User: Fold LysM peptidoglycan-binding domain-containing protein from Desulfoglaeba alkanexedens ALDC.
Amino acid sequence: MEPLRPKAGFFRFKPHAILTFAIALLWIQLPASSEAMTIAAGKPYHGRLVNGIPFPDQFRGFRIGSPDRSYTTPEVIGTLLDAVEAVQREYPNTCELFIGDLSASGGGRLCGHKSHQNGRDADIGMYARGNRPLGRFALMDASNLDVAKTWVLMENLLKSGRVQYIFMDRELQKLFHDHALRSGWDKGYLDRIFLDVGSRFDKAVIRHARNHRNHFHVRFYTPWSTLAASVDKHDSRQQAVIELAQQAYLPKRVHYYANGSETGLPSLARSFGVSLKDLCRWNGLKENDVITPGTCLAFYKRGFELEPVHLAQTLQPPLNPAERPVQVASVNLRQLVASHPNSGASPGKPQRATNKARPFTVHKVAPGDSLWAIARKHRVSLKALCAANGIQSRETLKAGSTLKIPSSQSRSEPSKTVASSVTLRPGDNLWSLARRHGTTVERICRLNGIDRSATLKPGMRLRLR
Assistant:
């Protein structure tokens, strides 16, 4: 099975203690041109899609209506996969969701649509009552629509922060609005997201559209793919940064080479964090097949990765004009981090040699911690943290181990006091909370016993420390 792109993606694997794995990861490899960078050019109703990606078929929970009309951007792929996965967690044996048209390979006019031209639009079916699978769009009303299950899909799309509009018939809006209200959602918040129900807030996300009773149409924000349209084609550095951020949204293919210690496919699937059925399907195997040493198994892992996006958002042009420009083909995380202005001394100021040992504080690694998150929490640069501990930026951390945190002399800014708890406001998500309160998503999840995909509702209280 071929990967989603000609190049491989980045994946951090955390092996279980019961097995020793020989994992060959496919690290980020940025090509020497912009051929792999997806570009959403122009408007949804007058635009084009460059290097669009066909919606991946490696995962369960959905079926694509037409592969030739399934091209889109990394941001759309990541957001839709997250939402479908959330439905599967809440309804483990749910039927497949039917996904209709996205865009054509190169974007532009798509027969039957005024929009869908630059990879930002998707027509999505709804779940029918009785867990009845649908192989196409079907007219929906109160008698056949599984409102609760479809609302889980919609609320996970909304909470992603990457949805600009959802277009559907106003009669369907009423069904979802009433269900959400009965489920405890704040009425004021619901009135602000449904245009045709309640107070009719003019900036509402969910809006009426004719001929949308058998599906809903989602228009996404695609910040990196949209930005790519304005990047100078000769600026290889900016292209590399955008592609690095886009990779965070895409599933990652991982190769595992059997070493003879495996007890069978079921235990391997559990250790990889995938289902046995998926592992067999991806490799053309049967559940009772014996794996011989040296056999290469491919599996897919997914989940939005914040670190590449954080890194891309903070990158600046090289400070030294005489420095040889970074070649896109050789860009890697270490090179990019090294070019960050916070990763070393300030330019133009000579560094005085000193033999004095710097005082350190100690951080005990918790499950889910990463070097980037720890550096951000303690307001130190990633390079300084790695240097203090003699480790590489890609190193996997073991829960319970300790790290030295450099003294305040090497910190980029003073630490902020984190409030003990917070009441959620409309539009809040884990990432916005972490940024606003100077903490990390991992810490919020750990303190509140939730995961990254947890549903957040206005009025909820979350612990921050």
In short: The longest helix spans residues 74-90. The domain at 421-463 is CATH 3.10.350.10 (Membrane-bound Lytic Murein Transglycosylase D; Chain A).
